[in-house]
Amino acid sequence: NFSPEIEDAVFVRHFDKPVMIIAAAEESAGTLAENRGDALCGLLSATLAIGKRDLLRQCFFPANPLVDSGEGAAALDRFRKIARILKGIRSSTIGLFGPRPRDFETCNYNISSLHSLGVEVEELGFFDLQNEVRRVEKEENTDSIINEMQKEMETIPDVEFGKRLAVYERALLNFRDNLKLSGAATQCWAEQEFALRHVPCYVNARLAARGFPVACENDAYSLAAELVAQYASDQSVTILDLNHSIPLDVSPKLSRYNISDCIGLFHCGNTDPSRLVCPAMKHQVIMKRLMEPENEPDITRGTIEGQIKASPMTMVQVHGAGDSLRAFVAEGEMLDLDPKTFGCTGTAHIPGFQRFYRYALLGRFHHHAAIAFNHCGSLIYDALRLCGIETIYTPLPDSVRYPGENPFGK
């Protein structure tokens, strides 16, 4: 406990990785006279020495850094999970295919801000992806992928369309393997449909279920957030729009919630099918109206539709703030009710969401968020802080005002 404080600081400097600092609490009244641990004193001295050398950014302190043996073991286990997030994100390389879609300025990104998180970026052209798809069509056998897809999703319309999807999946996997990618983001809206003759949603969902998230609309920030959420939850994740408000008449079950804290989370169909109630392959409704208004759906097929199952959920997003990042983290639950709309979608209840949306999100974040299907906000918050993100927004209780919130009420 009263270790040599200079050596503590030198260790942190040369270790050059995240360090948790804890102190052993006093064991009993019988030790206070002869074998006192002096934990408070020793921890203050060690951390001051570390701080004087500008090394505290590497250090993690649990909520109570004075621990007995059982608390120490629990703190170590939690720090292991936080370190997993940091190791994952700092070791990650993401592949970005094509520019952001026109009129999706909201998904624009700054590579320097992603580097601040530790993420490496491979910027690739949409032609690179298209050329690999054409090569796979000519040179590789994708029958095994088609068979997997047909077993998993019986509503795939026919073998020919299944081959379109399978060839695309193999092309993405080839990029993953050759470039050692942790995840990818593709342009999708709207050239991909004309060029590759399908929407990529189901393939995105399959790969996310296997630990390789693929973000929509070339959204690099949401892809980084998905990786953080995946490493924190140790489960498959998805990317969803913070999409629509919920009318009271959606379900009688809503009467038990503050309706302003309920939101519709939606995307065309990119979520792990195991997370959905009765998933089925369909077409993208809006794209159908725009791209093939007079014909039966063809190139706009490939979405997965279904209600997202009830579960705990954590929502996380990062966004550029100059060459660094800001973030938000919120926890809630996916409700067990019919969302009464298309796509892979569900209704989430996030306590305090209305004020959070108004005073924290507007003007700072775009419309996507990464979704983990358990409560892991505490791990994500601490990991993002250790990654160097200083501004992390979370919902505040009613008793605490946001900066700029009118103190006199509505």
Describe the protein's architecture and organization.
There is one protein chain. The chain is an alpha/beta fold. The protein is built from 13 helices and 17 strands. The protein has helices spanning 5-15, 39-52, 69-90, 111-117, 126-139, 143-152, 159-179, 191-196, 201-209, 220-233, 285-291, 353-361, 377-386; strands at 19-20, 23-24, 59-60, 66-67, 93-97, 120-124, 183-186, 214-215, 237-245, 262-267, 276-283, 301-308, 311-321, 324-334, 344-349, 368-372, 392-393. A six-stranded antiparallel barrel has the order 9-10-15-14-13-16, surrounded by five helices. A four-stranded parallel β-sheet has the order 6-5-7-8, with helices on both faces. Strand 5, helix 4 (111-117) and strand 6 (120-124) form a beta-alpha-beta unit. Helix 3 (69-90) runs antiparallel to helix 10. The N and C termini lie far apart (52 Å). The mean pLDDT is 95.
Largest sheet composition = 6 strands, antiparallel, barrel
Large-scale geometry: globular
Output the radius of gyration. 24 Å
Sequence of strands across the biggest β-sheet:
9-10-15-14-13-16
End-to-end separation in angstroms reads: 52 Å
Q: Note the run of SSEs as H and E.
A: HEEHEEHEHEHHHEHHEHEEEHEEEEHEHE
Strand content: 15-25%
A few lines on this structure:
It contains 13 helices and 17 strands.
List keywords for this structure.
17 strands; single chain; six-stranded antiparallel barrel; 410 residues
Summarize the SSE layout with pairings.
Layout: H1 5-15, E1 19-20, E2 23-24, H2 39-52, E3 59-60, E4 66-67, H3 69-90, E5 93-97, H4 111-117, E6 120-124, H5 126-139, H6 143-152, H7 159-179, E7 183-186, H8 191-196, H9 201-209, E8 214-215, H10 220-233, E9 237-245, E10 262-267, E11 276-283, H11 285-291, E12 301-308, E13 311-321, E14 324-334, E15 344-349, H12 353-361, E16 368-372, H13 377-386, E17 392-393
Parallel strand pairs: 1-3, 2-4, 5-6, 5-7, 7-8, 12-15, 14-17
Antiparallel strand pairs: 9-10, 9-16, 10-15, 11-12, 13-14, 13-16, 14-15
